[in-house]
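Work Package 4 report. The design task specified in the project plan requires that, given a folded chain encoded as C-alpha cells, an amino acid be chosen for each position. We show below one input record used in the internal validation round.
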C-alpha cells in the first residue's frame, strides 16, 4: 500500500464524519446484545395470488417480502412482521378462519410449511415438498392444512398441524 494512504489505522478523530453518521470506532463500542429492529418494509415479493391474504375478522393484510411476512394494519397504517429463521423466501400464506394463526409456505430446496401464532411465534412446521410451495390453506375448522407443491413437486399434502 502506498505510504500515507488512509487504511483505518490513522487517528480517526481527525476524519470528519457526515452528519448523523457514526465512525467505525464508535460503532464498535456498542454492546454485543444490540439488535436491529425492522421498522418498515417497502415492497412485496409474490408471484401469484396465494402470496396475499387478509383476515376477514380484523381486516389485517399479510404479504411476503423475501423471508419476511408483512402484517399490515390498514386502519392504523402500521406494520408488524414475521421473520423466518430459515431465511428462505415465503411463497404462499393464508390466515386461519378465526384469525389467530397464519400458515406460510416457502420456496427453494426442501421448503417448509410453517404455522405461526399471530400473538406469538412459530407453533408448527413440516417439510414434505422438494422444490417449493405454491399454495397453502386451512380447512374450514382450522384443524388441517393443505399445501400444494410447485409444478415439479407434483404433490398435494394435508396436515393435521395440531398433532405435529
Amino acid at each position: 500500500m502506498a505510504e500515507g494512504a488512509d487504511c483505518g489505522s490513522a487517528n480517526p478523530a481527525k476524519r470528519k464524519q457526515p452528519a448523523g453518521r457514526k465512525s467505525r470506532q464508535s460503532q464498535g463500542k456498542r454492546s454485543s446484545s444490540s439488535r436491529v429492529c425492522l421498522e418498515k418494509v417497502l415492497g412485496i415479493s409474490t408471484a401469484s395470488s396465494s402470496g396475499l391474504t387478509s383476515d376477514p375478522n380484523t381486516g389485517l393484510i399479510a404479504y411476503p417480502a423475501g423471508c419476511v411476512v408483512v402484517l399490515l394494519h390498514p386502519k392504523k397504517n402500521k406494520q408488524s412482521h414475521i421473520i423466518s429463521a430459515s431465511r428462505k423466501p415465503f411463497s404462499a400464506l393464508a390466515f386461519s378462519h378465526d384469525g389467530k394463526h397464519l400458515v406460510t409456505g416457502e420456496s427453494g430446496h426442501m421448503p417448509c410449511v410453517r404455522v405461526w401464532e399471530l400473538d406469538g411465534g412459530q407453533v408448527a412446521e413440516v417439510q414434505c415438498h422438494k422444490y417449493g410451495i405454491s399454495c397453502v390453506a386451512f380447512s374450514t375448522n382450522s384443524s388441517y392444512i393443505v399445501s400444494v407443491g410447485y409444478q415439479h413437486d407434483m404433490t398435494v399434502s394435508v396436515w393435521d398441524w395440531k398433532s405435529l
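Confidence is low (pLDDT under 50) at residues 1-18, 20-28. Validation will be extended to a larger panel in the next phase.
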